[in-house]
Predict the 3D structure of the following.
Amino acid sequence: MSAHHGAQQALRGLRVLDFSTMIAGPYCTRWLADLGADVIKVEPPEGDHMRHRPPLRDGHSAFFGHLNAGKRCIALDLKQPAAVAIAQRLAATADVVVEAFRPGVMPRLGLGPQQLRESQPALVYCSISGFGQDTDWSGRPAYAPVVHAASGFDLALGCGPDGRPVSTAIPLADMLTAMFAALSIQTALLHRHASGQGTTIDVNLMDSVLSIMPYEFQSAQQPEQQPRPVYRPMRAADGWVLVTPINQRNFLNLCEALSHPEWREDPLLASEMARFRNWDAFMQRIEEWTRHHDAADCERILTAHGVPCARYRGLREVIADPQFAQRNSFAQVEDAAGKFLAPRLPFAFDSARPIAGAVAAGFGADTAAVLQQDLRLGRGEIEALMAQGAAISHSAHP
């Protein structure tokens, strides 16, 4: 079997109907598309909000393209019964439905899991939300920064000198939820293969974030303890480095690299518990060495001695690193503004990486083709749907 048709295309032949917008749902379904699924993205008349988010190139969002490469894109006004009927017919042909509306919206439209699974019992239906489908918080509006604050994640990152919680610009809650949604969908597909039955999946941002804080979660249930040691950026002569001598072997190697063999017998540093008790002093001693060396030299010297170390780099430099060409880590994606790179899935099957979608489709680019080819509607029916605004068709593929 060729690489193209091996495990990298494990979902080939499966159809995913994607009603989600923004980040979590679209990233999940892009990964499913990378693994071979036929993903039909259903957008509202105004389009996915991410189509307008920078970075923009000639008015086209590379951010949107990064999240949605490899999908067919159609546009439906689900406020109109004719558009809902189209969505229902498409769902009857699908293996998986993904949606990220507020809880209750899809059932009110006639597109809820129970409604669609009446005619398609084997359907895997995945609902993505901020706080779950049936809790006291289900109706709350939720974006990743809100969940970061509400989950304890931001406080776990620490606070600034004025006590202000640290926050991150990266929508980690969305990324994690996308990952867990993709994992749960594929698990449900395995269950369907064995039983013939579909599954209704409830995955949410809050639970996803809580799942990545095992130390903090357990520490919160225990009496007050010594704070967890945190590795911090260290000043180098021309930038910053991170040095992480986690275990005893790393520490002994560090002593050799920094030409401080006496640290091995120093009661303040000799054991792991001693270093934990004197953490700030330990970090300061290392920084006394790093500040006299260029960041690249710190990385080279410490790494050669078996001490984990990395200099801080910007993404522009990272993307150009030959390491990623060796790994075939990035794929070229094209939209109407041209070509750009996006990461492939971060694993390989038999040394081959899954193939990311080559095209990020324009808004409504596939509406007419899907109605004609997938639902077998005639030209007159399609024109009538377009005229009343139930279905919208715009630019073709680049």
Summary: The longest helix spans residues 172-195. The chain has a mean pLDDT of 95. The radius of gyration is 25 Å.
